[in-house]
Design brief:
- This protein has about 375 residues and is an all-alpha fold.
- The chain has 2 domains: about 140 residues, no CATH class; about 160 residues.
- Helix content is about 80%, strand content about 0%.
- The chain contains 14 helices and no strands.
């Protein structure tokens, strides 16, 4: 019989707390977390390019699969796919930028001529209801000085945009550079993620499907809202008799896609021009329509469209989108909903693990001989 006092009570357990294996695990965990943090800091300057490259890769993955089936060379297929994306994205952006700059400068010159000649005052005096507003504006503000300052600001802004276009071009080139490898090497990337993440095959397939659904819902929701905003703005321009309503409707729709910008960049100057031109009623109507209808439809439709596709409550969808824009800038339009979707999946995994402790944790994997529905490397991304 073994003497119970033969083993000292203070002897460390081989796998207990304070053992060498536990200390090694803690050190490894600390080094891993430190490495992940440093990797994030290294990648943070490229986060917008990475986010948009990921979104474009998800959207154009079907085209990549079709091209690979036809051409048999993934690199050639990815090159053609990137060129197609560049034509779809770069050409409209270039058109909008040039058109906005030229029209902004032209509109500023027109308004300057109206103010300097005093024509704006005579236009307002033709309407008894607007004449007091014109006199109040003239007493309270140095309108010619303000208009000259705005004109100078527009000129300087156009020059700064020309300088910053080089940085924007670098960002676009980085996005397409990463997009090429995301498309060409997507199967290898997905296999690497499957091997690194401690999730079952079913959860990994669900994760990839959620990422794909999130990107599709976000992008297509944005495009749907942009079409609605552009249509509403163009119809109001047509009804008020403003020039080129179709063109400005398209421009407002395309600007609505850009998170920092929006349709207000078009309808606010148009309302000011109508006011100074003596059409105060039309200016007020355009301002109300743009501010309430065109601007409000974004906050109403976008969370509804995105939340319905992701089976996410409208409030949560709104917080993920707006919070993502505040935290990450324009790339937050993609990253915000993605973070919410991935976190929701992880919480569901932990909930199942706590409900069924005998399963063995989140690192249990389905055997290779038992394929999971939708678990192919390229099924969802």
């Amino acid at each position: 019989m073994t003497d119970p006092e033969a083993t000292p009570a203070s002897a460390p357990v081989a796998n207990g707390w304070g053992s060498s294996s536990q200390m090694h695990a803690l050190v490894l965990m600390a080094l891993t977390l430190g490495g992940l943090y440093l990797c994030y800091r290294l990648a943070s300057p490229f986060l917008p390019a990475l986010a948009w490259a990921l979104a474009l890769a998800v959207l154009f993955a079907p085209a990549q699969r079709w091209l690979e089936a036809k051409l048999k060379y993934p690199s050639v297929a990815a090159t053609i796919n990137v060129l197609i994306v560049a034509v779809i994205v770069v050409l409209p952006a270039t058109f909008i930028g040039d058109r906005l700059i030229s029209e902004a400068i032209s509109g500023a010159e027109t308004i300057t001529a109206l103010v300097d000649s005093g024509q704006w005052r005579r236009n307002l005096e033709a309407y008894p209801l607007l004449a007091p507003a014109g006199h109040w504006i003239e007493r309270q503000f140095d309108l010619p000085g303000m208009v000259n300052n705005v004109t100078a600001w527009l000129t300087n802004t156009a020059a700064s945009l020309a300088r910053e276009s080089v940085l924007q071009l670098i960002g676009v080139v980085l996005t397409f550079y990463m997009l090429f490898y995301f498309l060409r090497d997507r199967r290898a990337i997905l296999r690497l993620l499957r091997s690194l993440l401690p999730l079952s095959e079913t959860d990994m397939s669900r994760l990839f499907a959620d990422v794909g659904d999130t990107v599709h819902a976000t992008v297509y929701g944005t495009l749907a809202v942009a079409v609605v905003q552009g249509t509403l703005g163009g119809l109001m321009f047509w009804w008020l008799g403003l020039p080129a309503p179709l063109l400005w409707g398209i421009v407002m729709g395309l600007l609505a896609v850009v998170p920092v910008l929006g349709a207000f960049i078009v309808w606010i100057p148009a309302a000011i021009f109508l006011l100074l031109d003596g059409s105060g009623g039309k200016a007020l109507l355009l301002a109300l329509w743009g501010g309430i209808v065109v601007g409000g439809i974004d906050n109403l439709l976008y969370p509804m469209l995105v939340g319905r596709r992701l089976k996410m409550h409208t409030v949560i969808a709104f917080v993920s989108i707006v919070g993502g824009l505040i935290l990450f800038g324009s790339s937050g339009l993609i990253l915000g909903p993605l973070i919410f979707a991935i976190t929701r999946l992880l919480l569901e995994v932990w909930s199942r693990r706590n409900a069924s402790p005998s399963v063995g944790g989140i690192s249990q994997r389905t055997p290779a001989s038992a394929p999971v529905m939708g678990a192919t490397d390229d099924s969802s991304l």
